Amino acid sequence: MTGEHAIDPRIPPTGPGCADCDAAGGWWFHLRRCAQCGHVGCCDSSPGQHATAHYRATGHPVVRSYEPGEDWFWNYATDALHESGHELAPPLSHPADQPSPGPAGRVPEDWARALHR
Question: Which ranges of 29-114 does DSSP label H, i.e. alpha helix?
Fold first, then answer.
């Protein structure tokens, strides 16, 4: 699926939500976790599209879904979906009580209009 440095299964995620959205007071639709450094970013449907921005800034090509019950990986370098992959350090998703979109209290009422399609 990847080069030898694209996944580091020992690195935990950076937190329960998109680090960049949290820093800016924004919100996300779904979350992705960098399999190399643990950075949690928001998906391409989210207003910030921070997971893709992280790939472009760092060259870290592989993300894993950070949604409860999902264990697929995406490789930005090859545009390939992988139904499964390496087991990563826990936690494997954002907290189950955290809504999607999230986080609670920062999602606008008309959030669906802001999604990228």
Answer: 50-58
